[in-house]
Amino acid sequence: VRHLPTGARGDPRRGKRIGYGSYVAAAAEVSVDGGKVKIHRIVAATDPGYAVNPAQIERQITGSFVYGLSALFYGECTVKDGHMEQTNFDSYNSMVIAEMPKVECIIMPTGGFWGGVGEPTICVAPPAVLNAIAAATGKRYRSVPLKNHGLSIA
Amino acid sequence: MLLLTINEQSHDVDVRDTIGMTGTKYGCGIAQCGACTVHIDGVATRACAVSVGDVAGKKVTTIEGLAENGVLTKLQQAWVDLDVPQCGYCQSGMIMAVSALLRGKPKPTDVDIDSAITNICRCGTFQQVRAAIHAAASA
Fold it and tell me: Could A97 and B30 be called an inter-chain contact, meaning their C-beta atoms sit closer than 8 Å?
């Protein structure tokens, strides 16, 4: 379980500018075959304080894994001669439907604060998958994106 | 003058800027994301990579041309019923891609969906997209 920095609760100066402040956790089921990582399932929980529209929160959580997993496997910006080398989706991949695992969402509002729901679980996507890869293979990856380690999504 | 046949009517130019059919979106411009997907003679095509001269005399269908007489297709209705879109930008292209898929495979499997639908959705609506495809297929 990883807690995000809770600006909303801890620091009133920052809290008024940051819409996060939610508590999140995620776990992943993966299998690794050579350089191919198959993500079978993600379970993600968010405590946003209050949950106004659970259906939308579920969609936001699910979508956050498109960002988080794209970052984990593909996301890299490199600079050459003063210019970004990645200029479009041909050089900066975003996960498509075939790559996305099923994401199961747990919304567990405990009340008393207003946290965000779109971005917090992005932060737990890579550690959840990396921990699962370590559990499956014993190997720890200390840098991302994983494409640089020869790993891709099955 | 270039005559294009769009949604059964003849127009002399481009879909968005002069005809005002803004459903078709401009995304990456290099046929990667699929936001601009239309049907050209029934084939789902990423319009951004097609020269206008290549469409002359062909039948173009945009998202505006799917519904008939104001009645949404089963696919569009499934999209509404399942609240698929979030920001919505990619969804016209997504629906056009799925519409072409369903014409060829009325009951697509998950594997069919995975191989046919390669549109990028940064909101991550994929679970709802998949559910809506199956709902439309069984409606």
Answer: no
